[in-house]
Amino acid sequence: MTPECSRVMDCLGETLPPDLAAHVARCQECQVVTGGFEFISGPSLAGPSLAPAALASAASSDDEDDEDTLPGQLDARRFALEALAKQPKARPWWHGLALLVGVHAATVGVGLVLLSRDFWVRNAAHSSLVVGVGVLILALLAAGTYVALSPQRRVVPWVAVLATSGALGLTVVLTGSGQQGKSFLAGLVGCMGTELAVTVVPLAVTLVLLSRSAFHPARALAAGLSAGAASLLVLHLHCPDGTASHLLWGHVVPWLGLGGIAVLLRSRLPTSSHAP
Amino acid sequence: MKPASAPVRTGDDSGRASVALESDEVLMARFCEGQAPAFDALFQRHSRQVRGYLTRLTGSASTAEDLVQLTFMSLVRARGRFLPGSRFKPWLYAIATNAARDFQRRGRRPEELTPEGELPTGIADESPGPRDVGLERAVRQALDALPESQRIPILLHRFEGMGFAEIADTLGLTESAVKVRAHRGYLRLRELLAALRTETLE
User: Fold this and answer.
1) Predicted-assembly ipTM surpassing the 0.95 threshold
2) Which of A63, A178, A217, B14 is deepest in the core (most CB within 10 A)?
């Protein structure tokens, strides 16, 4: 490939300068390449990108455009007008965030009220540890909810989500009181069941809100972990069993599993909007 | 979807002329405030380009038509997620890209499969005119042979005229990451097209 051929490659899709156009006229290889790319461009579909001024004039020449507009495109325009008629002003994205935070807060509150009999906090660990881990869980809950619903386009790294959740899980396990509660199996079943039951409502609301934007697995995972964090916090405060094995298999593993379930369910739900 | 009986008309000619001069971002802000002509102008400006992009991305004009509808319906539904101060075009193309990914993730339409329920081996030539169909198909397959991470930056750069910063905004990546992907894609494309040249000469 000659340097001129290389320059033609760099200019594919653009108007060629005269020297390169002359080269293409006598170079069989470049004719093959440019011919192929002209086809890929789709002469009736795209052509060169339009300048703003051309776009403005295109928008003003409405009659011509309407003749060429696809029937399906007209449907989209009609849909927009119907949507505007129903709700003229756009609802800010943070309304969904506020709703979900509210649901999480209500879930924690109701869960503690229903589970607690004599004591709100039955975790026998040192109070500073109980408060510290509780704050960490709350922080993850809030951050996960924000990451899940924020319209920021930056890709959420899997590693960050997994590392954060893994670190929190490890912290929960290592800061247990060590106090033995019921038998291992009975405690496991009780806490797993409680965790699943408490998470149902926040997870359902989370999935509904997630389906209003494009599917991103890492975001869905963050959302699921965030929803599960509400029940993790309830268990952290309520459960008197502080052995590492119980905390691992009864609290942390089900919580991580809820994150995976959220990803699975979200991937199968229809998406109402593909916006970031 | 069935076609509408008549084109949707919104606003008078003077209003249409004024919105035509506004930037995309101003129009989007107006649309978020409930002004329908602003959406109409955005649609007129971008629907063809988005359709072209989706055609190249999916390899099917009919699929692209459906996805254009989905893209603009998503825009309407999620207009509250457009952040003031951000650029409109990358946001729109991010929606289109997500719609295409969702389509590919969920599987193709039944009419695009072979009677045996398998994916077609080649993309049907939907363009009229005397062309070297085999060559066109081969070149198109060369582009399709690129991984999505390299193909989308090339499509946006070469065919949509977007800068690397805009592409980074569209894909949620850093600008340097996009440049690396595009560079690798162009290198790979050259290899594929060189192989094509050899086949043609043979």
Assistant:
1) no
2) A217
Q: What is the pLDDT of residues B135-194, one digit of tens each?
A: 566 667 777 888 989 889 888 987 888 888 899 999 999 888 888 888 778 777 777 776
Kindly tell me the burial class for residue B108, based on how many C-beta atoms sit within 10 Å of its own C-beta (0-12, 13-18, 19 or more). middle
Tell me the pLDDT tens digit for each residue of B144-154: 888 989 889 88
Q: How far apart are CA A259 and CA A196, in angstroms?
A: 12
B68 found inside a domain? yes
Interface with A, mutate which of B35, B92, B146, B159 (most A CBs under 10 A): B159
Alpha helices in chain A (DSSP H): 3-10, 18-26, 28-41, 52-60, 62-68, 71-86, 94-115, 127-149, 158-174, 184-210, 217-238, 244-246, 253-268
Q: How many separate domains does chain B show?
A: 2
With b for 16 or more beta-carbon neighbours within 10 A and e for fewer, the A227-261 pattern comes to: bbbbbbbbbbbbbebbbeebbbbbbbbbbbebbeb
Chain segment A51-75, per-residue pLDDT in tens: 333 333 333 333 344 445 555 567 7
CB pairs A-B closer than 8 Å: 229
Chain B nearest-CA distance from A140, in A, is 23
Both B40 and B83 in one domain: the answer is yes
- B44 pLDDT band, cuts 50/70/90, is confident
Residues B83, B156: one domain?
A: no
CA torsion, points A96, A100, A106, A107, in degrees to nearest 10? Answer: 150
Range of the domain at B40: 22-119
| DSSP 8-class letter at A11 | T
Does B150 share its domain with B188? yes
Contact A42, B127 (CB under 8 A): yes
* Cβ contacts of B49 on chain A, cutoff 8 Å: 46, 49-50
